[in-house]
């Protein structure tokens, strides 16, 4: 099994990147949160999971061991395949996902494209006992303060993922203080450059 890869990113597409390792290019499917942090030419290290299917060998990569572990937990849920598991980790940051499972927040899980209410219920039912409830924080408290909660809500209502919205908010200048409208415009400009 290929447990990890370290090399230079040759190309990036929607949810995958080609990582060159000693002249061999590996196509690695990665969560959106990992992809948006990198550009072609970066050197990266990823924890990987090889998925073997009847007509397909696919490699999935993660920035942390915990993300890879969670990917494998999601695969144990009936109705969740590798693409749905990766999509879940792309649309919800790991703390959000843990929070949703422990608190049985079906609505939050259902926001992931391709995850309906029944599948969301299966996820909480199967994984609730496997996810620690220690030190959980609500999604709006993850990486934004109270003043930025409205901005986070506006960006997610415009169709951006929680991860994209939080990353854009983190890139806002600390000074001068911007109005909500100015902050939203700055975030949208940042997201268009990605």
Please characterize this protein's 3D structure.
With 194 residues, the chain is an alpha+beta fold. It has three domains: 4-62, Nucleic acid-binding proteins (OB fold (Dihydrolipoamide Acetyltransferase, E2P)), CATH 2.40.50; 65-130, DNA polymerase, domain 1, CATH 1.10.150.20; 143-193, Helicase, Ruva Protein, domain 3. Helices cover 42% and strands 21% of the residues. It contains nine helices and five strands; from the N terminus they run E-E-E-H-E-E-H-H-H-H-H-H-H-H. It has helices at 32-35, 65-75, 82-91, 94-102, 106-110, 117-127, 149-157, 162-170, 180-193, and strands at residues 4-13, 16-21, 24-29, 43-53, 56-62. It has a five-stranded mixed barrel. Strand 2 and strand 3 form a beta hairpin. It starts with a strand and ends with a helix.
How is the secondary structure organized here?
Blueprint: E1 4-13, E2 16-21, E3 24-29, H1 32-35, E4 43-53, E5 56-62, H2 65-75, H3 82-91, H4 94-102, H5 106-110, H6 117-127, H7 149-157, H8 162-170, H9 180-193
Parallel strand pairs: 3-5
Antiparallel strand pairs: 1-2, 1-4, 2-3, 4-5
Compact description:
The chain has nine helices and five strands, in the order E-E-E-H-E-E-H-H-H-H-H-H-H-H. It is an alpha+beta fold and 194 residues long.
């Amino acid at each position: 099994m290929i447990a990890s890869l370290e090399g230079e990113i040759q190309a990036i597409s929607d949810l995958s990147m080609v990582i060159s390792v000693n002249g061999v290019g590996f196509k690695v499917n990665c969560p959106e949160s990992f992809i948006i942090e990198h550009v072609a030419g970066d050197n990266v290290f990823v924890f990987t999971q090889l998925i073997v299917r009847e007509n397909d060998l696919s490699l999935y990569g993660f920035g942390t061991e915990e993300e890879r572990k969670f990917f494998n937990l999601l695969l144990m849920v009936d109705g969740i395949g590798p693409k749905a598991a990766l999509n879940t980790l792309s649309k919800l940051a790991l703390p959000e996902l843990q929070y949703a499972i422990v608190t049985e927040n079906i609505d939050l899980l259902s926001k992931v494209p391709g995850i309906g209410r029944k599948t969301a219920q299966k996820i909480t039912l199967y994984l609730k006992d496997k996810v620690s409830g220690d030190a959980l924080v609500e999604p709006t408290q993850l990486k934004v303060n109270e003043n930025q909660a409205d901005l986070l809500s506006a960006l997610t209502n415009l169709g951006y993922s929680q991860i994209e919205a939080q990353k854009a908010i983190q890139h806002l200048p600390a000074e001068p203080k911007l109005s909500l409208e100015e902050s939203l415009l700055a975030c949208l400009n940042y997201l268009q450059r990605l």
